[in-house]
Design goal:
7-stranded mixed β-sheet; mainly beta; single chain
Amino acid sequence: QVPLVESGGGLVQPGGSLRLSCAASRGVFSINAMGWYRQAPGKQRELVASDTDGGLRKYADSVKGRFAISRDAVKRAVDLQMNSLRSESMEQYYCYAAWIDGDGNSRYNYWGQGTQVTVSS
């Protein structure tokens, strides 16, 4: 069973919106944070948004004001609402889950297989 299962990726027109969803399997444990990374061809993977217990949210500067993350810690699920998507882009979005300790270090990292988001006219 895949640790994290993503859905919602696809093709969208420039300026459009898309909502990604992710749910953790039973094999995922000891987590207090979930979020999303993305990777474009030939570029490094970057953190898009994350949500940690206590309501702490982080966003990449490039998506602030356009994307919104929402996490249900009980259901162990996280969504990413993406608005005003850029023109002509293709990126793989990966759901992740982890335990973030008191020093800010990540432990027990889990990853989804990824879902592709393509913005094209």
